[in-house]
Amino acid sequence: MTYNQTPIVQVSRGDLIYGLSRERQKYVIAYAPFRFINMNYNPKDVDYIPTTIDHYLIPFEKFNNERKLAHIEKGAVFEKLVAFEKLASFEKLESFKELASFKELENSEKSAISNLCKERNQTKLNIGSAQRREYNLNLPKKRGFRDNYNAHMIGHKAYYTAMLPEHDKRQLDYEVRKKHFIRKCKGGLSWVVTDSDPIAQKIKVHFILDGLDMRSIVSKQPYVNNKTGEVSKTSITASELRWIYRNRHNPKVKQKIHFWFEGKPTIPPWESEEGKMIWQKYVPKYLSE
Questions:
Q1: 140 lies in which domain range?
Q2: Residue 209 placed within a domain
């Protein structure tokens, strides 16, 4: 449902789905309007249209993962991991954790090796995902989307920094990485709402509100999932929603951004009676961006 209470007719190809990753994954399985959407970030060679901002790629994502892997693959703990993996392979075991020599280690050492293994494997998956997304964005149906998004980001006074091929050790810092991703995501909203290119003009944003705690978002506190009670380290989704709130009087925001809750169109979270009370406490750092 849009700001003027007009029901959404259709979720179209090329529209961007925003909200918590877990909820987006659920929507494409559980709710008919979203079932055609491809949420795979490491897909096969299929020329599908991007449907989340995650499908787009900024230079930082490639550089960060490659630098992170290089950082992981050094040091005494990594050397032990490699040695255990080689021994497990020689003994034809599925995992080095099955080795008697590994089981004999102190719990702290086993934990360090196991955690490093998990981090390395995830980073390799992220590198593969970035490479696959880069390849897919170069396929015919998606080049226009990629080029238009990139041009908007490069030309934006606040978000252009996310497109710089920086080579800085600080890129491994969590807060620095988060800022890049926040700019990427808010840049996607800005692109859809403000860009005059015909491609951007056709795109709508569907924002899933499931799982969000509005009080945490308004107060800018660590996100607390109101279903599971889990505390999230990231505030990217919160930043996206605050961006929409700051720009809520823009006619294009009212026209192009639609909200969903429990699989159905709904009003913006600040327009319900409870929401009005919560959002009136929000103090913006920026007036628009």
A1: 16-279
A2: yes
Angle among Cα 3, 18, 268 to the nearest 5 degrees reads 25
Name which of 69, 58, 185 is nearest 127 in CA terms: 69
Q: How many domains does the chain have?
A: 1
More confident residue, 258 or 228: 258
Distance CA 95, CA 113 (A): 12
Q: Which residues is 16 bridged to in the sheet?
A: 205
- Which token pair is 241? 């929603």
Instruction: Label residue 141 by pLDDT band (50, 70, 90).
Output: confident
113-117, 121-125, 237-241: the lowest-pLDDT one: 121-125
Token digits of residue 132: 């696959």
Max CA pair span of the chain: 66
pTM of the predicted model as reported, rounded to 2 decimal places:
0.80
What letter represents residue 82's amino acid? V
Q: With respect to residue 246, please indicate whether it lies within any of the assigned structural domains.
A: yes
Query: Hey, CA dihedral for 162, 124, 80, 107, is it positive or negative?
Result: positive
User: pLDDT band at residue 285, thresholds of 50, 70 and 90?
Assistant: confident
Give the CA distances from residue 271 to residues 5, 182, 206, 253, 266, in Å, rounded to whole numbers and listed in that order.
Answer: 11, 25, 17, 14, 10
Q: How confident is the model at residue 90 (pLDDT cuts 50, 70, 90)?
A: confident
CA dist 9 and 1 (Å) reads 9
For the ranges 116-130, 190-204, 214-228, the one whose mean pLDDT is highest: 190-204
Domain-located, residue 139: yes
Q: Is residue 43 part of a domain?
A: yes
